[in-house]
Every structure is written in structure tokens, then in C-alpha cells.
Amino acid sequence: MSKQRIVVTGGAGFIGSHLVSKLVERGDEVVVIDTLLRGNKIPKDVFKQIEFHRVDVSDEQKVADISKGADLIYHFAAILGVDIVADNPIETMETEVNGMQSVARAAIENGIKTIVYASTSGVYGHLALEKSVDEEILVDPRTSYAMAKRYNEIYLASLYEEKGIHSVAIRFFNVYGLRQDNRMVIPRFFEQATQNSPITVYGSGEQTRDFTYVDDAVKASILLGDRVKGFEIFNVANERESTIGELAEIIKNMTQSSSEIKYINAPKKRYDYEVGRRFGSSAKLERFINYKPNTDLQTGLDVVYKALRD
Ligand code: UDP
């Protein structure tokens, strides 16, 4: 693949920063648009090699100007995290809807043919009841975040019909790895365990998640960006279901922590959003790009823990 000029919105965030590193590593010219609201997670040596713009993705004119000459846009900027979304539902939706509007305008004005969009497994709501979910099942978004992500998926489908802009919407399943905010469960449990303070499991701990290692998520994103035609939706899931109680045990043992595993009621706003069971099928992804996430949870957790100790 020849060198491309690639715009990454949200490039300083968790998944975005890993994506930026990989794109720089393979020799692409990378342009990052980010407000730095949650800090800058791009490693220093990588940051020196990119073009950076501290700009809100909702700023249509600036995003269009910055994107001139780009081949591809990865639109990964978002407000996320149950706590923040629950407190700021309107801003969450505005960022999604206005951000996509800007990205679409930039693509149309500049003749950019491809958009890769970070959607969410949250669009499935409470549907993952008996089996892993695939992309065919009817979605059931329950939060402003998931609802806005679903809206953008449909918007991208129409952008292809009306303007011929190719895109993929990636439904990520609980991505984890280095540099993740400790608002999310894995870094949070590591922090609690290494401080020997209680590991706080919400509810019964029987709720499940499908944890996808960030390097796998990025690899899938890059392969999709290179190959997408038309409009497609893909799950990016590890296809392994873990209970949160089990996760707490694993992290406690790994860290040889004296923390107590404390089963507590989730804060009210979280409780309202809690999904009982979630795990995904990456079969479609494998069919299209001959790759699916394959890092098992223990291997990924080992990397995270090693970085904490170094
Ligand atoms: N969780 C928990 N204790 C915490 C933080 C989270 O038990 O201190 C649980 C949470 O209730 C959910 C899972 O961990 O079932 C994943 O939470 P996270 O916020 O990482 O992602 P979500 O899947 O809720 O978007």
C-alpha cells in the first residue's frame, strides 16, 4: 500500500493514539484532530512525526481545511464512558452528530473517498442474551451515546448512496490496553488492586463483557480502512465472555493484592445503564479481512500489568 495522508479525529485518545502509532509506523502521513479534553495519549516520539491540530471536531470549517489532500479519515473522536455520558447526554449527542457532520463535509468538499468510524457495541443495548451478537440482529440502543452512534451509522450508509463515499462503522466491544483511563473497569481494577484498596465489583459481578485488546482493535481498523467498499458494519470483538467478578479475581491474583473484592451496588446512574450480558461475534470481520481479534484476556492483562510495574 502506498503512503497515504490520513486524518484521525480523536487521535490523542485511547484507541486513537494506538491507531496513530501504527499508521506512523507503516509510513503514513498522519494528521490528528483532537481537543485534548482527556489529555494527549500519543507517545512523545510518535507525536513528533505527526501533524497535530487542537481543534474540536464539530468545527466544520477547520476540519474541512485540515483535511485537504487526505485519502482517508478515521473518525474516532467521541465523548464516552458511562459516567460522563449519563451526566452529559446532550453534549454526547451533539459531539457525535456535529462531529460526523463535519467529517462528512470534509470528505465531500475534499473528494476524500473513505471514512472509518468508531461506533459501539452499545448499539445492541440489552440484546446479547443467549449468544454472541452479530451485525444482523436488530439493534436496541438505550443511551444517548449508543443512539447517536447508530444514527451516524445510518448517516454513513446514506452518504455512500448519495455521494459515493465508502465507509465502515466498527462496533467495538470493550477495548482495553495501555493508556486507558481508569474510569474503565480494567485499569480501575488494576489501580485498586495495586493500591490494596477494595476492588469494587458492581452488582452481582455476573454481568459479562467481551474484552478486546487494543492492538487487535487497531489492526482490524487498519485492515478495514484499507479494504472498505460501499458501506459496511463490523463487530470487533474477542468472542470470549468474561464475568466482571471473574475479572476482579484474575486481577487480584495477578497483582498478588491484599485487596478485598467488594460487591457493591453500582452508582445509580450506572445502574440505569448496566448491560447484563455482552459478547460479540467477529465472524463477519474474519470473512471480509481474514483477521479477527485473537489476543486472549490473560495475555492482554499481562501487558497492562507489566507497564504499570515498569
Ligand atoms: N464495573 C465494576 N466496577 C467498577 C467499574 C465497572 O463492576 O468499578 C463493571 C460495570 O458495571 C460493567 C463493566 O464493569 O458491568 C464494564 O464497565 P466499563 O465502564 O468499563 O464499560 P461498559 O461496558 O459499562 O461501557
Your description of this structure?
This protein is of the alpha/beta class. It has one domain: Rossmann fold (3-Layer(aba) Sandwich). The protein is built from twelve helices and 13 strands. A seven-stranded parallel beta sheet has the order 3-2-1-4-5-6-11, sandwiched between helices. Strands 7-10 form a two-stranded parallel sheet. It is globular. The protein starts with a strand and ends with a helix. The structure holds uridine-5'-diphosphate (UDP). Uridine-5'-diphosphate binds at residues 82, 174, 184-185, 188, 200-202, 207, 209, 244, 266, 274.
Any chance you could write out the topology, listing elements then pairs?
Elements: E1 5-9, H1 14-25, E2 29-34, H2 44-47, E3 51-54, H3 60-66, E4 72-75, H4 82-87, H5 89-110, E5 114-120, H6 144-163, E6 166-172, E7 175-176, H7 185-194, E8 199-202, E9 208-209, E10 212-213, H8 214-227, E11 231-236, E12 242-243, H9 244-255, E13 261-264, H10 268-273, H11 283-289, H12 297-309
Parallel strand pairs: 1-2, 1-4, 2-3, 4-5, 5-6, 6-11, 7-10, 8-13
Antiparallel strand pairs: 9-12
Helix pairs in contact: 1-8, 3-5, 5-6, 7-9, 9-12
The chain binds uridine-5'-diphosphate (UDP).
Uridine-5'-diphosphate binds next to helix 7 and strand 8.
